[in-house]
């Protein structure tokens, strides 16, 4: 369902959501029957497609809770492998079995699923032979190649020198066959340049195979040379070139991730120099820029020693029960906090010059126009900073905070939020920095930049909610206590007044996390009950019902009203302006004096200003608030003028006169202004 459906007529449909909490894999009998039927239906296209469709529908139900498949993975794998290994199975059946294996691996994740493949010494040759017989250009059978490469990745882990598998090669020179080590490397290289999913599996094969003790001793340098030569000599201007670069960069990223630092440190400067010369960060292809960031961060982690910074902020008890019970947490806190002064003495170790280059590239990646690049950069900054001395890490935090300038684009704000969340999650954003960070996050929660006929910033607001969620888990309640009212009000405002349904749900989830982990948010449980993840799906409900309930709590009354007046009455979207003014009407009953003495005097200058949207919203707001005050006065048998000062009454009377004098009821603006 489109979340923006119905916004044009002032309505947003109730988002129907069904909790996807499954308790077990209940379709095991049906799946067993489907797999057993494969030999009978593999030759019939219609039956085959129907069976695949049924299997996909069943498996996709477990996409969010794939761990429920774990007790059943082994028998599914064994049934399918039995058919694959059967010499009487026709090729069509073998490919169909591999398709089923791919569907399972997609849902459960290849990292878990590939561990179940048989990986005896006797499996190496058959799997390699079967893979060599495949046609890389056959678009119908890519799942077969993908699964075989993963399977070969597991069989490569056998703890024997591969030369033993070559057997008679050394004794019988008449047989001109390659050693198995070279054959596997050749297969991996050939699949690194294909355009389908098997390229990803080939990079996994490389990371498992080339890091073997016997292979890295003989072939690691050559393979890295091949990768760097490929990167240097390949142009990204063609589709083939982009695919080849993708494969080489994926291999490097996987190798530097899984290999031992001692083996790769000598090659890291050369690889970094090659990437700098290629200028991957300036590529037009987002996937290449993302892979470039991945390789660079892995190089950064190779340059610095694999040690966790002792200066990190470490939260003590993370028990929700403890937080909600408000028991004496503070005693345990003091015991778990590191003595920052003393540990900083242990942090004096040399950091290679290349690390500065790495961090600079990651900071540039935070401002990339694509989310995948920004997200990868943020994770890289978190990982590398965790190994730096305290002073250098603080410089990185300072650089990240520079993303939150109003000269920067929404991309920089989004990347900055992701980086702060990563730093906070890892304990690398010390509590002393919260006074700088929290005001920026509050701004990010309402970030909205008009661009033509639409606005930018929903991703920034969503990421700011993620920061609040991460901070709830990262810090002790005592550290966040000075900022509780600011964060709580900002999250409540985003939960009920954000235009985007995704941001409202993200804010609700972040508020819920803070209520549970911190236990200090005012009236947290009551608000969560009214504004949970599902009830905030309907925009009208948020503005006209939930907001009225929340403003019943004194801490939130003025912040919600002030936000509507400052940010929503003058919003570029007419639907939001009208909803905001109706909300002000409903909220007047919560604070009539504040509305009459503070809000109306703020709105009157806006009502006769030059900006059309601001003028339209302000006039509607003045009308709605005055009407609400009139209704309150009627209940008390008094006059509306008892609420309003003489200046306010005069200002309301003069709105029509001032606009008439300036002829602002004419033209396009008049279509809005006359009804208002």
From TrEMBL:
The UniProt record lists the Tubulin-folding cofactor D ARM repeats domain at: 288-525
Q: Which InterPro entries match?
A: ARM-like (IPR011989), ARM-type_fold (IPR016024), ARM_TBCD_2nd (IPR058033), TBCD (IPR033162)
Stretches of the chain forming a coiled coil according to its record = none
The name this protein carries in UniProt is Tubulin-folding cofactor D ARM repeats domain-containing protein
């Amino acid at each position: 369902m489109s979340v923006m459906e119905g916004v044009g007529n002032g309505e947003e449909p109730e988002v129907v959501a069904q909790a996807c909490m499954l308790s077990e894999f209940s379709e095991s009998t049906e799946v067993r029957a489907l797999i057993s039927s494969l030999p009978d239906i593999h030759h019939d296209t219609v039956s085959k497609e129907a069976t695949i469709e049924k299997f996909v529908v069943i498996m996709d139900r477990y996409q969010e809770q794939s761990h429920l498949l774990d007790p059943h993975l082994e028998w599914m794998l064994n049934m399918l492998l039995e058919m694959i290994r059967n010499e009487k199975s026709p090729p069509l059946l073998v490919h169909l079995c591999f398709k089923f294996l791919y569907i399972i691996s997609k849902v459960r994740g290849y990292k878990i699923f590939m561990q179940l493949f048989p990986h005896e010494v006797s499996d190496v040759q058959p799997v390699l032979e079967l893979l060599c017989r495949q046609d890389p250009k056959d678009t119908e059978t890519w799942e077969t190649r993908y699964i075989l490469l993963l399977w070969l990745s597991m069989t490569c882990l056998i703890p024997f020198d591969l030369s033993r598998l070559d057997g008679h090669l050394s004794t019988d020179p008449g047989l001109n066959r390659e050693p198995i080590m070279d054959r596997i490397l050749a297969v991996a290289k050939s699949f690194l340049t294909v355009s389908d999913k098997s390229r990803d599996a080939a990079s996994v094969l490389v990371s498992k195979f080339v890091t073997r003790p016997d292979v890295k001793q003989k072939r690691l340098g050559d393979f890295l040379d091949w990768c760097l030569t490929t990167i240097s000599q390949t142009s990204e201007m063609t589709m083939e070139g982009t695919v080849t670069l993708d494969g080489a960069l994926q291999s490097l990223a996987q190798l530097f991730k899984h290999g031992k630092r001692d083996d790769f440190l000598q090659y890291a400067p050369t690889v970094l120099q090659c990437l700098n010369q290629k200028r991957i960060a300036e590529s037009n292809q987002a996937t290449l820029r993302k892979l470039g960031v991945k390789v660079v961060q892995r190089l950064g982690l190779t340059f610095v020693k694999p040690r966790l910074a002792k200066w990190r902020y470490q939260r003590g008890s993370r028990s929700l029960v403890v937080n909600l019970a408000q028991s004496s947490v503070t005693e345990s806190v003091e015991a778990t906090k590191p003595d920052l002064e003393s540990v900083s003495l242990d942090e004096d170790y040399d950091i290679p010059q290349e690390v500065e280059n790495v961090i600079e590239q990651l900071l540039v990646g935070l401002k990339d126009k694509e989310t995948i690049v920004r997200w990868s950069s943020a994770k890289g900054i978190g990982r590398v900073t965790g190994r730096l001395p305290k002073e250098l890490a603080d410089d990185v935090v300072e650089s990240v905070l520079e993303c939150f300038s109003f000269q920067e684009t929404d991309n920089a704000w989004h990347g900055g939020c992701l980086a702060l969340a990563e730093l906070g999650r890892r304990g690398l954003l010390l509590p002393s920095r919260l006074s700088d960070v929290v005001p920026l996050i509050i701004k990010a929660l309402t970030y909205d930049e008009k661009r033509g006929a639409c606005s930018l910033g929903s991703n920034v607001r969503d990421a700011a909610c993620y920061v609040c969620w991460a901070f709830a888990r990262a810090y002790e309640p005592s550290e966040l206590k000075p900022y509780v009212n600011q964060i709580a009000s900002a999250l409540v405002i985003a939960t009920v007044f954000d235009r985007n349904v995704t941001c409202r749900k993200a804010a609700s989830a972040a508020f819920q996390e803070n209520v549970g982990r911190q236990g200090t948010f005012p009236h947290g449980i009551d608000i969560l009950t009214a504004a949970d993840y599902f009830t905030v799906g309907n925009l009208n409900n948020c503005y006209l019902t939930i907001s009225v309930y929340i403003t019943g709590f004194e801490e939130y009354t003025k912040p919600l009203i002030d936000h509507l007046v400052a940010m929503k009455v003058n919003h570029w979207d007419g639907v939001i302006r009208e909803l905001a003014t109706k909300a002000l009407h409903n909220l007047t009953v919560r604070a009539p004096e504040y509305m009459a003495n503070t809000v109306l005097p703020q709105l009157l200058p806006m009502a006769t200003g030059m900006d059309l949207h601001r003028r339209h919203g302000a006039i509607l707001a003045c009308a709605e608030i005055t009407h609400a005050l009139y209704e309150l006065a009627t209940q008390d048998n008094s006059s509306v003028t008892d609420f309003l000062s003489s200046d306010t009454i005069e200002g309301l009377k003069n709105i029509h006169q001032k606009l008439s004098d300036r002829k602002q009821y004419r033209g396009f603006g008049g279509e809005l202004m006359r009804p208002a």
